[in-house]
Amino acid sequence: MPNTRARRAGRPGPRRHTRRDLVVLGVLLGIPILLDLALIWGPTLASVGLSFTTWDGIGDIQWAGLKNYDNLFTNYPQFWPAVRHNLLWLVFLGLLAAPFGLLLAVLIDRGVRFSRFYQSTLYMPVVLSLAVVGFIAQLILSRDQGAVNAVIGGRNPTDWLGNPGLNIWMVLLAACWRHTGYVMILYLAGLKSVDTGLKEAAALDGAGERQTFFRVVLPTLRPVNVIVGVITVIESLRAFDIVYAINKGRNGLELLSVLVTDNIIGEASRIGFGSAIAVVLLLVSLGFIVTYLVQELRGERQ
């Protein structure tokens, strides 16, 4: 007993924070919190409040109630096409770019020849911004001087970016070209971390390559699937650069982000109305975020 008490007495107690420690801790935590409030939550709450007003940015702010939302849903013809285009972005990136990126990752992970070259080449578009991708799309798909029409030839060149029935699909292909490389790298990192013992055990049980992938490998990639899903949603909802670089998001390329920009900083300066569109975009984003968090909490409990 005396030895035990002596050991307990010799143990150092919990270290007390000095005033300097508290100051450093307050600065390290306070500055990021203040920046988050000032740059994210402050403008967000301001947009929610301004969405119920009419304001041109100079005069007095006047309360409008739900008038902006009523005009948005009933008297603004660009709104519903923009909603459809954002959903089309989500479906196209989720059902085409993400699976194709997974396929490329599986092929490269198997060790095909020149895999390093393919990996670098396919990832290269990721380092480009969507605005640069838009300029590249103009060089390739322009009606008069584009590379595609120059190769096809003909007296009546196709207006790939000016035709409202075609330009959205061309832009989606360009966006998928960039998004596929990002998804490929994420899945490639996930495949490298899969335990080879699981594959060997499945092979001993008589499972083929396809069964091993879908029943063993793919379930272990669940965290990567979640990350890819979140990134795909973010990319589809924040899409702006590429369509604005091509034709300022008009003539068949309308998106909610473009409508927000046109109304807030455009010639109309309808800040209240533009804030209402931003709130709608925020609510759509929150719907996906809440669904993701609920699924993650359920997965942790199970």
TrEMBL record:
Keyword Transmembrane: yes
Location in or out of the cell: Cell membrane
Leader sequence residues: none
ABC transmembrane type-1 domain sequence ranges: 83-294
KW Cell membrane (keyword) present: yes
Membrane topology: Multi-pass membrane protein
Keywords noted in UniProt: Cell membrane, Membrane, Transmembrane, Transmembrane helix, Transport
Family: Belongs to the binding-protein-dependent transport system permease family.
Name of this chain's protein: Sugar ABC transporter permease
Source organism of the structure: Streptomyces decoyicus
